Amino acid sequence: MSDCITTYTGKHFNPVSPDPDLVCIEDIAHALSLICRGNGHVKTFFSVGQHCINCAKEAEARGLSARMVLACLLHDASECYLSDVPRPFKKSLKEYNRQEEILLNVIFEKYLGSILTEEEQRIVKEIDDAMLWFDLKYLLNESVPEEEPEVHIAIDYTVQPFERTEREYLDLFQRLI
Q1: Which of 30, 83, 144, 168 has its C-alpha lying 20 to 30 A from 5's C-alpha?
Q2: Tens digits of per-residue pLDDT, 16-67?
Q3: What is the largest CA-CA distance in the chain?
């Protein structure tokens, strides 16, 4: 068996030894549009790609820079190569977290020109957590103990074809670079 995965565009990508030249936005957009949030434990299909688009739209609505909007769009891009792991389990996976950080930094360097600063990471996490609050409430009917975060976008949980999410992700990416 190979140490590589075959991506949507036919690249042979080693996620634990990532080659920046093989990172491909088409692979990211395609895979994230097909990966379901919450490990599939949701009332209706909602993709990681849709979540990332919402994070980017929220960053834009807050008046953040194009760099930060793009960082929000890409913040889960490593999952297209490593898969999505639910937060409670992810906390116990030190090696996964290390590999994810390495891969995400490769992606950020390729598309943003550098890794995120601590302040940029804090802002992305704040937006990601705000979107998670709504995901828990509307996709799982969870009673979320934290106060409802202020968001500046309308979040649409309508099931949509993965091709639509993929296209929207790519269009947003193209507008930001």
Answers
A1: 168
A2: 999 999 999 999 999 999 999 988 999 999 999 999 999 999 999 999 999 9
A3: 48
